[in-house]
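Q: Start with the shorter request: fold the first protein.
A: Done. Sequence, then structure:
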Amino acid sequence: MKVKLDKYELSLEKQADSFRPVSKRKRLQIEKILESARKTKNINIRISESDLARLKQRSLEEGLPYQTLISSVLHRFVMDKLVDESAIRKYTLLTQSR
């Protein structure tokens, strides 16, 4: 049976010769990082019914499960990647008026 590759897979096939092997030490480091990223821990959290309802609505709009949305928001927060849009707007208005 022949497998049909999509565009992304075809591009990987074309670039296969350009990939270089890494040292055993570097590979172990990469595998350790990937393994820690895969580990999850279950927690219990109390949240207001209205906030949960809004989270579930937003998750439907985003097209992902609400628990995944919550996890994503928490991850962005701890990585300092969560953006406060109102703060950005205020900053933009301040810098444009100068």
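Q: Next, the second protein, separately.
A: Sequence, then structure:
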Amino acid sequence: MENASRALIITAGVLIGILVLSLAAYLYFVFGDYVANTHELIAINTLAQFNDKYLQYNNRTDLTIQDIVTVKNYALENNYSYSDYNINSTIAADNNNFIDVFKGENRTVQNRILNIPDEQLLQEELNNGGQRKFTCEVTISQQTRRVNKIYFYPTT
């Protein structure tokens, strides 16, 4: 009888140990999923905040040369944050995080303006009367889901 009660106590201890280990494993996976989901939400929010800085200009037809200079400087700030960026040779592509900004007289004829000084852009616009409004089109990379190209042309 004494051995039987001792066996029951040992069995109960093993069952309680299994329950504790099962609970620990369950909590590990639940909290692991929670942390993974939280990281995913943070990444989505960070991407949305990044894109919103540029998307606020998308499809607007009332932009001025000052808006173009502002967007150009946002893009340069982003591009210079990567050590492998070269303003004269690096171009935005679907597989990188760089941004290119273009300005032209229409949607199809565009000039890259990242390496043009702000003063030159402003002076060119003053030479064109200084009162033109511009339209903006923003493209988003299918791979990185980030803004990668921004086009400006005069509103007609």
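Q: Describe the second briefly.
A: The mean pLDDT is 90. The two ends are 99 Å apart (CA to CA).
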